[in-house]
Amino acid sequence: xxxxxxxxxxxxxxxxxxxxxxxxxxxxxxxxxxxxxxxxxxxxxxxxxxxxxxxxxxxxxxxxxxxxxxxxxxxxxxxxxxxxxxxxxxxxxxxxxxxxxxxxxxxxxxxxxxxxxxxxxxxxxxxxxxxxxxxxxxxxxxxxxxxxxxxxxxxxxxxxxxxxxxxxxxxxxxxxxxxxxxxx
Length: 184
Known about the structure:
Residues 1-184 are annotated as: Disordered. The chain has a domain at 80-144. The protein contains six helices and no strands. The protein has helices spanning 2-6, 10-16, 28-41, 80-147, 154-165, 169-173. The model is unreliable at 13-17 (pLDDT under 50).
């Protein structure tokens, strides 16, 4: 009898399941999707993004006036031990912070020096490569000039024309020197 009472037809089950079962355990992807959908529902509302907390560990300044000074009286009470431990903990935390700061400064100094040396090395290498390129370029331009045929020089063409006409006035102007370096 209970089987007929609780049994539903397939149509009723699908209608009841249409809104979807409520899940309490979401996968990270589903959780992110749900959060994004919630944000996108109210697109006009500004979103507050909190700032990151400072990474620096700040401690309280040491007190100028210490109230719980242990005197020279005999027999300290049971509460004095806890006061001592708290003071000791603060002092060790202060020393640890001082060591961390000095370590960070030392590492920063070493890093800057290393970067400076690397930059100088890179500039030196760049200058060396630049001079190599310039020498190669100069050599290539010199080779182009030396590979030219002496007949193709414009000055030689003028001289050959002057020789044909029998005019040697150009050689006389130079004082007999041959500035082109060509041989006749």
